[in-house]
Amino acid sequence: MARTICACAQCVACCTVQPGSCNPGDVERIADYLGEPVETAKLHFWASPGAVLMDSRSGRLLRVGTITPRLEGGRCVFLDDTDRCRVHAVAPAGCALFDVHMSRATSDPIMWAHLRAIMGAPEYAALRATLEPATSWQGRSTDGGV
Ligand code: SF4
Fold this sequence. Notes:
By secondary structure, this protein is an alpha+beta fold. About 30% of the residues lie in helices and about 15% in strands. It has 6 helices and 4 strands, in the order αααββββααα. A two-stranded antiparallel sheet has the order 1-2. It is globular and about 45 Å long. Iron/sulfur cluster binds near residues 20 and 69.
């Protein structure tokens, strides 16, 4: 999938509200880019409650927990003082593959592929289980209590 490149104010605003979620392997790639062991680099991330999906066959809601960069002081830990991403070259899939200008028709298939990759990677869930839970998440009424 082709990555997006946009640093407009709207896209940067996402870096202050909800950093993008990682694909399997993203934490390891970012660790390598930063020159840090994974055990050190993973401290830049936390376990987000993630996305709520509807199983079209059963109608049941299910939650896909994700790994995202931490928010500190209202900013992604990778957002520098000039509002640029310090890990742009290896940014999480949720940052690299989406921007706020995309239509739902464009972004939905990418999102599904992203979530399927997460659901198919037990090592991702294992890494996520070692991370601190996200403290920025406040939930939404549409989450259905999942
Ligand atoms: S990793 Fe980079 S693009 Fe993604 S939220 Fe953080 S600063 Fe923004």
